[in-house]
Amino acid sequence: MNTIEFWFDFGSNYSYLSIMRTQRIRRLAADAGVRVVLKPFLLGPIFKAQGWETSPFVLQAAKGRYVWRDMERQCAKYGLRWRQPSVFPRNGLLAARVALHGEGAAWEFDFCEQVMLANFADDREIGDEAVIRAILAGLGVDSDPIVAAARGDACKAGLRARTAAAQSRGIFGAPTFFVGDEMFWGNDRLEDALALAGR
Question: What is the end-to-end Cα distance of the chain in Å, rounded?
Fold first, then answer.
């Protein structure tokens, strides 16, 4: 079975669009005999390597104005809830560690979806441990062992390695999709990645 790797950051607004489409994409992928694998990572170190201290949507005012209007249009197009975050980009560190720890778990995709909704539809602080615990509890998952593992050394090292892998593969933004070594950047390239994976 071919695989689409879906690399994303919880602070990335365009990753929100793709995560919220993942349930549908997973069904299409299954029909095409393709597996979707989530790869949470951190964009911050990649931006820092470019000499940026924050998102280019913050550094470039015109791009920032454009992107928020574009998000309104894209969310309307997909029928998604949308509220511009009062803080951008938000710290997705703990969420990314929890998602990394939960890879392969039954709650993995739902957790990622709920964190994205918290950030980009409900304007909640996803860097707050209480928010992450509430999301896990809402999914019927015991948050204590998961948060403890996410704060552990193994998970910290795992996320650093994951982000280093993103850099070594040439990732410069999120979401990014890989089919083998073929890279697709941006939410609007998700279907192209799926088409290639289904061949």
Answer: 11
pLDDT in tens, 41-94: 999 999 999 999 999 899 999 999 999 999 999 999 999 999 999 999 999 999
Rounded to two decimals, what is the model's pTM? Answer: 0.95
Distances in Å between the Cα of 192 and the Cα atoms of 29, 33, 113, 179 are 12, 15, 22, 10
152 Ramachandran zone, left/alpha/beta (phi>0; psi -120 to 50)? beta
What is the spatial distance between Cα 40 and Cα 133, in angstroms, rounded to a whole number?
18
Among the listed residues 126, 138, 54, the one whose alpha carbon sits nearest the alpha carbon of residue 97? 126
CB contact burial 84-98 (16+ within 10 A = b; e otherwise): ebeebbbbbbbbbbb
